[in-house]
Structure formats: structure tokens, C-alpha cells
Amino acid sequence: MQDRSLSRRTVLASATVVAASATGVVGVAATPAVAHGRDHRLKKIISRMSVEAKIGQLFVPYFYGTSATSPSRFDQDRNLRELGVRTVAELIAKYHIGGVIYFSGWANNIKDPRQLADLTNGVQRASLALPTPIPSLISIDQEHGANVRIGSGATQLPGAMALGAGRSLSDARTAGLISGTELAALGIHQNFAPVADVNVNPANPIINVRSFGADARAVGRMVAAQVTGYQRAGVVACAKHFPGHGDTGEDSHTGLPVITHTREEWDRIDAPPFKAAIAAGVDSIMTAHLQVPALDPSNEPATLSPTILQGVLREELGFDGVIVTDALNMQGVRTKYGDDRVPVLALKAGVDQLLFPPDIDVAYNGVLAAVRSGEITEDRLDESVLRILRVKDKVGLLDGSPYVAAKGVDRVVGARKHRLAAARIAERTTTLLVNEDGVLPLRRGQKKLLVVGASPAFPTDDTRTTVPELAKAFDELGYSTTHLATGRAPDPATIDEAVAAAGGRDAVVVTTDNVGATSAQRTLVARLLATGVPVVHLAVRNPYDIAHLGEVPASLVSYCWTEVELRAAARVIAGRVEPRGKLPVPVQRADDPTKVLFRSGHGLSYDD
């Protein structure tokens, strides 16, 4: 890792986070947009680039391994099999790549902050070794909450729906600033966040708690706040998924959803958050792989629709930043065309960045063939390359060194003040839905607890799961806790074991995760209620779970199951802090979805 000093931007952003943590007020001026007067310098860079280099700037592929030049043999073999090269450094050299995306888990890119900084420096060395040396714009999906990539060592923050429940623009902005500051310290300068989709469909299988809520204007305010926070930290924010993925019952990873909103409904429900993001100066917007007949009667997926991207996004909404596709390996964009044609049609539709092609060789050569045949002009390539260079210039990648320093990582990533700020923000998001006869907070004498129920693994660490981690949080608050993870589909024997474990306990905390009409989690909760031991229900993901559980004496929502949210929920249950969250979505009755069980804005305090 290169030992270089922190950039002035990183120092300023980190200092601002410290101030924001203490006061709740963010006080650093936003990084100004790159003046188009600087385009002359950028166009000179473009004039020196070959067609092949220009095409490479548009691609943002995945790769395997924790090192740019010496990944494990296993990861080298995977790269060779899927990408035709052994390392990401070779990938950059072969295709003149302009950016890459990091993933944890399956791609094995992320272990800890120091390793990630070393990987970043290796990627940048490979980029600067190209014939036209231009640093990479390194990307990540670090939404927080249910969708997070960097776990151990970095600050974990509440996700979008939790922030929506907190209803604090200052908290949303500070969360973006903290996250952005840590990403910038790691050399990651594009984050595919925030989600701008309005989750008006409780059955949405892919957005759900990744959305700030169901009220378009409220979502828009939160989106703008997060955009401001990220971009003040020197990170390219990305509002997604245009033109709106909040009212789908199908996952675009596996199919091609259809948004049936009328144009008036789209203007009222889907458009406001994207308009708010643009007004806040968002640098990039991600497309959705879905059909919106009211916007484009041809029913092309939005990613491939000139009518939607150029006609609506560019011309009507006035967006002139970078348009990036959602991942091109998703089925929603591959239903009609081959993998060689999808990137070509996306560029013709108005896209600038091509994310995660399923076969980089096929995609790259498909675009190259289209340029050589005249289907895509070199002027069209130049438009997209210019937009990409503008954001690289804005975040400082074209001035000075793109490398990151060990001392910057150690000082900034996971800083104590960041973690304390995250904990305080999380405490303001936990939502109390039901509290019959003052079951909560737990009374002083209720020290023996059973924590039981669904126990999903942490998003970035499958060795840590919800139930034992929640029990640990109660133990640290002075309780004597036993725990039993029963899973999302407990069998009768497991339910019997849970009921037996409740005997002699002062209270039971039961967690649920995505309860449905036929879920065995309903039986578990009912059996626990029948024991006569006070039962506290905690939905660790969806606020909609309560509709399927009947009458429980106490019910809360944490909106996610990461450590910061579980600890906040434990502190609320224990009475160490007041519940302050308000539902950002309505919860309909399970037996009659036309009727509302809890309205948006509902949330009890201990004074109610």
C-alpha cells in the first residue's frame, strides 16, 4: 500500500462527520459541480484515446479475488474461466477498463479495510499503466441496512427504510457523509446509492426495506439528503432505479417486471425522488430493467429505451450526469436480446456506464463491432466518456495521486465517532407499533429473557446471526439471556423446544423475518403467547409482519438485522432510549388489504 497523505477532501469530510456526530448539523460546503468550462481539458484527453480505450471507459465489470495482481489460485481460475484473464490488472489492460465494482461474498473482493485499500491501489496502478493513463472509477453497492458490502471494520449504518422511519433529514445526510467519507478513504468513489424507488407494493420482492418509504415526497427529501451527504464526502452518488422499481411484484434479476402506473401515477408516485435527486446535484442515475408502457409503449426495458432515458430523463427532467445500467447479467434486460446487443442498445438509448456484463469479451466486442460498422458513432462514444471523465475529475481522480494511504484507512474507516453517530441514528429509527398495558419497556425485575425466532445471517458475515447477536446485546445491558434460533420455517419439534425454553423466563423476545399467510412463524408466536410469559415481537426486516400475527401485546420493527439496528432495538426494549421511529409505509390488514392496520406515520412512544 502506498504511504501517501490524506487528501484535503477526506480530511474535511472526516472533520465534518465528527461535528455532525456531536451536533447533528452538517456544516461543510458541498463540493461544487465540475464546471463545463473544464471540458476543454477533458476533451483533450479524449482526443488522445483510441476507440478501444473509449469503449473500455464505459465498462464496469466484476472480477474475483482480494488482490489486483496475485489473487488466490481458486480466484485466478474463476477469472480465467469467466473473464478470460487471471487478474483484474490483466482485465484492465486487455479491455482498457474505466471502472470496476467490488463485491463481498461470492466475488471475494472484500475482507477488511486494509486489504480493500491495497486492492484499490493495485487497480489504480493497472489503470495508470494503460496507454492513456486514466484512474478507475471504483464502484460499490454500499446502501447499508439489508444491502451492504463492506462489513468488518467499517461503520454499519441504518438502511433506507430505517432512516425513513427516523424522518430526520439531518440523520440521512450524516449517514451518507459517514459512509461516503469511509468509502473515499478506501479509494471508492462511486456508490450505487441511494435507492429512489417508492415502495408502494408490500409484496415487492427486491426493493422493500431498501426504499425510504411509500410517500413520494418524503422519499424525495431523504434521497436528496443522502445525495448531499455522499457527494460532500467526494463520492459519486447514484439514485436508482429509474424510472422507478417500487411497485413491482417481480424481481428484475429473474424476470422482466411491468410497471402498470399511468403517466399521471408515474408523475405523482415514481418521479418525485428522481427530480429531488437531480435538484440536489446527483452525479449518476441507475436504470431499471423493467417495462413502463405509460412512458414507452414499445415496451422496451427502460435500460434500452431512448424514449425513457433520453426523452424523459434527459429532456424532461434535465439530467446531464452519468446514466449507468443496472447489472447487465440480470434477466430483466436479457429477455429480448443477446449479450452482444444489450450494451449496444443501452448506449443507443443514452446510457454512459455499462455495469456487470455477463461476458465482458462478448459485450466489449459487441460495442466495438457497432462502432466499426457505424451503428454507434465515435462522437456518441465521446459524449459518454466526457460525462465519465467529468465525475472522475470532480472527485479528484484526475488531479494528483489516486492512491490511498494506510493511515487514512486506519484513521477514518470505522472511526469511533462514526460508530457512535451510527448508534444514535439507529436509536431514532426503531418503531414501536403495539404496546398493550405498558408491556414495554421491560420492568426492572424482568432480567431473565429468552430470545427466540428467525435468525438471518448478517449481510456481510454469515458467521453472525440475528438471535444470538440480539441476545448478546441484551446481556451487555445486564440481562440474563438464553437464546434459540428457530429459523424462518420452524418445524413442530423446534416450536415445542421454544415453548419449553420460555418456562421460567421473565419475558420472551421473538424475532420474525418476512412472515406470510402460511408461515410457521405465526404458529411459533401463537404458541409463545399461550405460555402466559410476556412476549415482545421484533420484526427484523419487514414492517408488514405484524399483519399476519394477530394480537401481540408488544411489537417493534428494526427494518434490518445488522448489529447497529439490533443493538438499538435492544436499548429501546430495555427502556434505555425512547422509541422514536414512525412507520414510513402503511401496513394493510392481512385479511383485507384494502384496509389499513397501521397508517404511515404510526409509531408509539412510552408516554402514549
Structure, described:
- The strands form 5 sheets. Strands 2-3-4-5-6-7 form a 6-stranded parallel beta sheet. It has a 6-stranded mixed beta sheet with strand order 9-16-15-14-10-13, with helices on both faces.
- The chain has 608 residues and is α/β, with parallel strands linked by helices.
- It starts with 7 loop residues before the first helix and ends in a 10-residue tail after the last strand.
- Mean pLDDT is 93; it is low at 1-34.
- The chain has helices at residues 8-23, 39-47, 51-57, 73-83, 88-95, 113-128, 160-166, 169-185, 216-232, 263-279, 306-316, 342-349, 360-373, 378-394, 406-412, 416-427, 466-476, 492-502, 520-529, 563-573, and strands at residues 59-60, 101-102, 139-140, 190-191, 236-242, 284-287, 322-324, 354-355, 431-435, 448-453, 457-458, 461-465, 480-485, 507-512, 535-539, 554-557, 587-588, 596-598.
Q: What's the short story on this structure?
A:
Helices cover 39% and strands 11% of the residues. It has helices spanning 8-23, 39-47, 51-57, 73-83, 88-95, 113-128, 160-166, 169-185, 216-232, 263-279, 306-316, 342-349, 360-373, 378-394, 406-412, 416-427, 466-476, 492-502, 520-529, 563-573; strands at residues 59-60, 101-102, 139-140, 190-191, 236-242, 284-287, 322-324, 354-355, 431-435, 448-453, 457-458, 461-465, 480-485, 507-512, 535-539, 554-557, 587-588, 596-598.
